[in-house]
Structure formats: structure tokens, C-alpha cells
């Protein structure tokens, strides 16, 4: 089988081809085109198959990780949408929980929601908590609301019924009326989006879907069409926020909001691959691109999945998602001085264009990449094997302007820029570890992304992480993760049941129902029987709590055993448990996934080593520039060691080994970097 993984970042689009028959990996990296991401993808695909000596028709699958949905929610560039809600629920998405980030700020202004109030309509019609109709649906009012939204040019409508998770009859009728009054309008109902009991997360998730789908669906269709026009017959899959992949068809419409973490999720799955080949089971992944840094944790060679996330505007999104901490810290992050005279880095980024000053694409603001060029950690002769030219003089001029304002030398200002960015990353890693009480001394730090290898040793030292792991292709780790991800479906049913006196027969029936639905989906997606597995879980909470915890539960397992596991998980996450306190079950879950034959990647054969070179590189440990060996990464042999200072270069990244550190080439061709014992 021949598979291509394509990861679109803010600066570069990474492509990896795995040929299982030949046992080879081929890689390609091209500049992203933010205005038309599909064009950069097509360029990368065609370059990749040509480099591998293949034709487009030889490829069996293309798996894509996209940051389009991520960027929409960060930049709040949602598509215009409307809401039709149960009478009295028009403002639920804006009122939220009334929790405030700054409770003592009397002038606090909440961020606007994606659907403003004048596009939110309410209509009479209500179901009771047990599904009985209390007030009939006012169809005439519904038609008026649809016509009013259509007159404003709104092409997407979210329907949010108060108790629709019990019976969606009113929501489905409203959807029919929308189709009659405004044919062609995208309509999504909350009962199809989420069976969540709490109305705010369910309404908010439905509203977000209605504002994402009109932008994401055309993009996926364009990408499919471009690939087909170029002669590719491969099926297109898209990475989901859960770390699983889905077909292009299942990634559109009512599942568009599942792509909010599509790009970042792939890097965490790449961390699982790294865990498998290196034998290190506890990893912190640091994926540093041009615009952002994504932090994830792999514990026991497994990812961590949660079922609700908070968007930058504070709205909850009810969707399975990997635990990822994302900050605005990448190679293109702009360095600036705040009103108090302090040096700051990010979250603003120069992106792919105009990009860092050193790339000569029109950038004028000093960036982290410019600072690394000044320190000569990045090759001043160019990157991407010479495909991307670097102007060292321009980088120095950009940092010099910053240095003058700070009263520092150019190199001191450059190292300050790097240090501030590293401090931001360290804080994000600490926050990620704190969620589950992780002791970072038990973990290794995995460098990923084009800029990951430049800072990992400094971060490891600051965080007391004992070792750094550099995968064979760290700049392409997300694309590699795409190629090993499982095809995945998550389903859930809400319940409200006393866990100390449960109806175990009902739980078993609903588990069987969900398992049947998810296996049907897997069969439709082409997964043969015997190549899937179903994992079950129950959401539990102490009576009186607002939030639940998902607890693994085997099919038919005694609820008493699941409750005992709940107490253990609660104690680990929150530091306390209360055995003997009443516990209730709030949801039944099942995850169906394909089972890959192997997560192992073909190994890249070492290249012939080019002549060794050296250049002057700035290291804080040495107090200035040091003549430093510059070594081709794939000229190294298994078992070989390199003592710092050293610069290891390859197509997709540069790795810095500071003085006092030693890099060893693992049998998997991962680099294991550790501080040399005094």
C-alpha cells in the first residue's frame, strides 16, 4: 500500500509518502498558500510522487491534517449563520454559564459569540424533560424566522431545541421547514451534533458547526476535485480532533466542527509513533511550526482524549479531542516591546507571507527565525537543502532595530527573543502536565515541527526533563502521524442513572446499540471485519457535580468495578476522591476504530555523509560565538554519538546540541540527547 500524509501549516505544507511494498519513506516540503491551501497540497503531492518515481494513480490513500478550522476559531472569521431556538432560549449561547475570566473587572466585556443576537430567532414549541410535548411547534413563526434570515443572505442555520436530546421531533420539523422556505440553506440540528444534556455546550457546538461548515465543506470538495483532476484515484481522509481519521464525506456538514484540532492532533499521533520506535512510553510532544507551538502528552504510549474543549472566545465545543495546549510561539512569531518596555514574542506571526525578514518575502518585523539566523543556528546559506534562501544581513538589521530600543547588542537581543519564546513554551508544558499531575522528570521531550529541534535542550533543562528525542523527520512528524492514525468513530447516549443501583441490563442494551451503529459506520468506510475494535466507557460524576469523567468500562463489566475506577481517576486528576458518596452515570460511550497491522514506520537508510563543515554559532553556555561542527543528520550511523556544541541539519529541521549535551543515534534513527554528567 502507498499512503501520503499531508500536513498544512501556517508556513509550510509537509508531505510524506510511505511505500509499504518497497519499505521506503519519501518526503517533500513546500511553502503553504494560505489563500488557496489546496494548491500548495497539490504542488506537494505532485513533487512527492515524482521524487518517488511513481505516478498519481499509484497512490492508495491521501490523509490530510488541516488548520483551516483552527485558524477560523482563533481569528474568529466564522461564516455568517443564524439560530432558530426554543422560545426563551434565544440567548443561551451568549449568556453561557455566566462565569467570568476576570470576576472583579466591572468593565469586563465578554467576547462576541459567532452568531450575533439579530440573527438569533426563537419560536414557540417545547418538549418536557421526558420528551412529552408541552407546547406545539409554531410552524408559522418558524417560517417567518427562516424567511427573515434568508432575506439577510444567511445561508446557514443552527436549530437548538431545549430537550431535543430526548426527542428531536421539533428540531427535525424545523429543518424540514427551512428546506421548504430557503432551499439550499445549510441547516444543522443540535440533536444530530451532540446528545449532551446541558443545553449551553450543545447549543454552542451547534452554532459553531453552522459557522464552520460553509467554509470547510467547499475547501474539502475543492481539494478532492483538484486531486482527482491531477490523476489521483486515492481516497481522501481527514484528521479529526480526536486523533482519528475519517473519510472526506464524514468530515463535512454536521462533523465540520470535529476538525478544529485537525492539524495539531496529527503531531500527538506522531508522538505515539515515536514512542513505539524509541521504546520510551512517556513523552511530551512539542510541535513548533511557523505560527504556533502545539504541546501534547503521551502517557504509557497512549494519547489522552477529552470530550469537551474551550474555544478562544470561551465557548465550549462538545467534541472528542486530544488534550493539546497551543500557544502563539513559532518561527514566524514577531518580537516586540510592550508599553512597559518589556520584550515580548508572539502571538502575532509573520506567517508564510510576508514571513520572517530573512526570507526576503516582504517581512519587516523581527521574528524568532531572524533571531536564530543572527545566532547562526540556522544555516545562513539557506534552508530546505538550499530551496529557501536566507538573507543574514536583513535578519541582523531587523534584530538590530529591536536591540537599539532594548539597549543591547544584536546577539544579546537575538538570544533574548529566543529565551522569551522558550519561557512561553515552558509555561505551556507545565500547564499541560499539571492537568493530570504528571511529573515531568518521568518524561522525555520530543522535538517536532520545523523549529522544534532548536529549543528542546534548553526547555528540557528548564523543566527538569532528563532527555530529548528527535524523531528521524521531526519537521514532518505531523504528516507521519497522519499515516499511522486509526479511522475512528465516537458515539454517546445520555443517561441519568444511580451508579450504586444501576440498571445494568439497560446499560448493556445501549452499549450493544452503540456498538452496532459504530461497526456499521466502519463497514461503510471499508474496514473489514476483524480489523476494528470497540472501546466502551461510562461518564460518571458525584451527585451534585456539574462535570463528569469518562471512565473505561468493558462491555458487560459490573458497574461496581467501574465506580471503583472512577474514584481512582478522580483522585489522580483532582487530588481527592469520596468513596461512599453517591455517584451517577450521565452518558454511555463507545469508540470504534480500525486496527492497523503495525504502527512501525519504514526506516530511512543513512545517506552518504557529505564533508564535515563548521561555522561560528552563538551559545549562551559559551558566552558568545563558538566554532561549531555542522553535521548532516543522515550521515550519522546507528550508535554514533555527537558531543555538543553541534548543529545537525536535514531537509525538514535543524537540531541544536548545546555544550554539555550528547546526542546518540538510536537503532530507530531517533536522536536521544541527554546532558553529559559532570
Automatic annotation (TrEMBL):
Pfam families: Hydant_A_C, Hydant_A_N, Hydantoinase_A. GO terms for molecular function: 5-oxoprolinase (ATP-hydrolyzing) activity. It comes from the Bacteria. Residues 3-181 form the Hydantoinase/oxoprolinase N-terminal domain. One of its GO terms (cellular component) is cytosol. GO terms for biological process: glutathione metabolic process. Residues 202-490 form the Hydantoinase A/oxoprolinase domain. Residues 508-666 form the Acetophenone carboxylase-like C-terminal domain. This is Hydantoinase. It comes from Zavarzinia aquatilis.
